[in-house]
Amino acid sequence: IWFDARIVPEFDCDGNFLGFVGTLTDITETKQAELALRASESRFKQLAEAVPGVIYTMTVNADQSAQFDYLSPAFEAIHEIPIEWAYQDITQLLNQIHPDDWPNYERATQASWETLQLFDEECRFIMPSGQVKWLQVRFKPTPRNDRIEVHGIVLDISDRKRAELALQRREAQLQRLTSNVAGVIYQYVLHP
């Protein structure tokens, strides 16, 4: 059982100590709730650190201004900017979106906020180092009074995109080669 004890010394009018006056309040429920909250926060922190991407929450105000409420630790490794910068000014992050991808990203974002549907886009981001990364941005907007709460994840899909582009090039090359062959090309596969 947890108690909050408040004890005050009591003196007579001549300043002589008479004793103590105090109260005890049972705060067990409050303490149990605090401990449960700490345990939940600890589990969430461990989960956020294990995710190979950025988990985030953001608030979008009625005037369309937005600010991050939470960014997981992977943010700096993926975006190459200090996490504090993103908390201070979200436009620094938005400025990383490749100019060719920005119109589609902006349209899809606006549509998601208006319809409250899941946003799921793949686009290029230009990092401060000059490296171009393909990121998958996924979020779900939820209305809260005159604001929209956004809960999402950002994943670096650059390796997958490079593999897709390499496969497309190989398929195009194979198509060019086969289109110049007179006759039939076939593949025979033996199955046990």
Architecture overview:
- This protein has 6 helices and 7 strands.
- By secondary structure, the protein is α+β, with helices and mostly antiparallel strands.
- The strands form 2 sheets. A 5-stranded antiparallel sheet has the order 4-3-7-6-5, sandwiched between helices.
Instruction: Extract low-pLDDT stretches.
Output: none
Tell me how many strands there are: 7
Order of strands, main sheet, comes to 4-3-7-6-5
Report the average pLDDT across residues: 88
Major sheet characteristics? 5 strands, antiparallel
Helical percentage: 25-40%
Percentage of residues in DSSP E strands: 25-35%
Shape call: elongated
Q: Which structural class should the secondary elements be placed in? A: alpha+beta
Radius of gyration: 29 Å
Distance between the termini: 70 Å
Element order: H for helix, E for strand: EEHEEHHHHEEEH
What is the assembly state of the chains in this entry? single chain
List the helices and strands and how they pair.
Blueprint: E1 3-11, E2 17-26, H1 28-50, E3 53-60, E4 66-71, H2 75-79, H3 83-88, H4 91-94, H5 102-115, E5 119-126, E6 132-144, E7 147-156, H6 158-179
Antiparallel strand pairs: 1-2, 3-4, 3-7, 5-6, 6-7
Task: Provide key terms for this protein.
elongated; alpha+beta; two-stranded antiparallel sheet; 6 helices; 192 residues; single chain; five-stranded antiparallel β-sheet; 39% helix
In short:
With 192 residues, this protein is of the alpha+beta class. The protein has helices spanning 28-50, 75-79, 83-88, 91-94, 102-115, 158-179; strands at residues 3-11, 17-26, 53-60, 66-71, 119-126, 132-144, 147-156.
